[in-house]
Inverse folding.
């Protein structure tokens, strides 16, 4: 092996150690990682799969957060059971295991397609891509989904169709967007030249049949609890339907949520289920086609952390090194028949990503195809002859790795002022208090009920009629409004969307209302108590 081997291996080992250190010295705090972490904690505590997070207000679609894919939280709950209890450091080691699985899988798939040198370059680009670094530490299921995706395609390439089907089923249970790959998978199997027609049919049967066996319990559970196998209950009525009650001691749920009741196996119920599913698909496709005709297909209609249509976000998430290498691959025109094996699933996934999620949707939703793009980029890096070009890519990789890891280590821990604010809430608010707050970390930090996302209470930020604001607060039984000051945005532009935080004009009006009293204020947070006696 040439001189790049020890350099690459050294960078990989040091980077892995640094990522593990940052993960173990910080706590789950950012965004959706709290939902996945709490999901695992509830599964461990209840010894069952709950239907919703009970710390979300009834007005909030609490079932939505626990209707997500169950593989990551169930795996973590099992690990806690085997190792004696809940601990965040165990969750970090568990999550990091998926990153190692991803790294090894990318190396093996790239080596299988293009040789060992390409495998090393692919591992290097994977390890130093900004979004891989960030989500390799944060408890999001996108990176684990990418890991399972790589192993699925590796096993498919090796013609181990039964095992590939098993991993496809696991991939669905980690991230249901894996369904976007299905047309591409069919194409790859049915264009495999070493088998006749019936051999390809048999291979498809093994692959998809075993995948279906793996996911069937989840489908039955969703049908039983939500009335739909897709179960994305944004609607308030589904949230109420899914609500479960715990005994006063905080023990197991009163309602049975096991996989045992297979009532959906009855023929009439199955037929009704299929009919309703097809109707849902038809109406959704009709709505999406209409949106495309109105050019809404290309627009971002809600607050997102990133957008695939924003060049700055593309550089921020993918990193310069991968982008440069991918363009080297395209410009080098050294295309190989093995490239088809990567391009087919990439195009299949991205078509449905653009059609169903919109082209400007969050970049992290593209995670399952990122390793495949990285392998093509690694092929482009391997193809350049100049030594200094390779050294330049190495330098870029190291710099972006260090900068992203430093950023994650800083933001994945609350500031001293924020800790003081959470401590005040724990000490000075009733346990049953309902708080308006835009981030999920308050659930873990204070154990108080929260409302934000889709409830009527959001309208108070845009209303200027004091009477109407008081009415909304009263109708929703809101007790506190907590302002996180770094989530205050100007009234216009992207930051104005409600999922981002509070419009500045709303925050400035709070002191004008007699029914609001500021009980706590520091540089990070202010806590406003609602005086219900003045709302009447």
């Amino acid at each position: 092996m040439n001189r790049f081997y020890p350099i690459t291996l050294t960078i990989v080992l040091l980077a892995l150690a640094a990522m593990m250190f940052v993960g173990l010295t910080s706590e789950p705090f950012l965004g959706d990682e709290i939902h996945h972490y709490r999901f695992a904690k509830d599964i461990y505590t209840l010894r069952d799969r709950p239907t919703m997070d009970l710390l979300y207000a009834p007005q909030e679609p609490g079932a939505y957060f626990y209707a997500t894919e169950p593989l990551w939280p169930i795996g973590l709950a099992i690990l806690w059971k085997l190792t004696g209890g809940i601990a965040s450091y165990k969750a970090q080691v568990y999550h990091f295991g998926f990153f190692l699985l991803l790294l090894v899988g990318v190396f093996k798939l790239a080596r299988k397609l293009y040789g060992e040198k390409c495998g090393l370059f692919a591992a290097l680009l994977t390890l130093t891509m900004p979004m891989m670094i960030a989500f390799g530490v944060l408890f999001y299921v996108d990176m684990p989904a990418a890991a399972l995706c790589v192993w699925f395609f590796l096993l498919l390439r090796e013609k181990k169709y039964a095992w590939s089907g098993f991993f496809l089923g696991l991939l669905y249970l980690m991230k249901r967007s894996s369904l976007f790959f299905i047309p591409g998978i069919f194409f790859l199997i049915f264009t495999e030249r070493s088998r006749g027609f019936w051999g390809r049919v048999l291979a498809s049967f093994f692959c998809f049949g075993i995948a279906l066996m793996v996911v069937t319990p989840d489908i039955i559970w969703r049908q039983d609890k939500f009335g739909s196998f897709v179960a994305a209950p944004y609607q308030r009525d589904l949230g109420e339907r899914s609500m479960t009650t715990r005994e006063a001691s905080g023990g197991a749920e009163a309602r049975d949520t096991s996989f045992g009741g297979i009532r959906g196996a009855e023929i009439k119920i199955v037929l009704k289920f299929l009919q309703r599913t097809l109707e849902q698909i038809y109406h959704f496709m009709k709505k999406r086609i209409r949106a495309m005709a109105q050019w809404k297909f290309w627009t971002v209609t809600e607050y997102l952390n990133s957008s695939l249509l924003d060049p700055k976000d593309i550089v921020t998430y993918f990193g310069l090194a991968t982008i440069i290498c991918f363009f080297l691959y395209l410009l080098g025109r050294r295309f190989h028949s093995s490239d088809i094996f990567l391009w087919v699933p990439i195009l299949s996934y991205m078509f449905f990503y653009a059609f169903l999620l919109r082209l400007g949707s969050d970049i992290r939703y593209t995670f399952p195809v990122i390793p495949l793009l990285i392998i093509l980029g690694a092929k482009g890096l391997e193809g350049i002859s100049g030594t200094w070009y390779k050294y330049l890519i190495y330098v870029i990789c190291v710099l972006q790795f260090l900068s992203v890891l430093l950023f994650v280590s800083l933001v994945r821990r609350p500031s001293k002022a924020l800790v003081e604010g959470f401590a005040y809430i724990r000490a000075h608010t009733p346990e049953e208090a309902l708080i308006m707050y835009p981030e999920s970390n308050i659930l873990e930090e204070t154990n108080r009920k929260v409302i934000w996302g889709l409830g009527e209470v959001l309208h108070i930020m845009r209303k200027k009629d004091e009477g109407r604001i008081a009415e909304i607060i009263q109708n929703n039984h809101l007790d506190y409004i907590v302002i996180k000051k770094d989530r205050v945005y100007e009234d216009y532009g992207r930051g104005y969307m409600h999922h981002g935080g509070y419009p500045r004009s709303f925050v400035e009006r709070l002191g004008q209302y007699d029914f609001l009293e500021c009980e706590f204020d520091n540089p990070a947070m202010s806590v406003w108590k609602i005086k219900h006696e003045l709302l009447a």
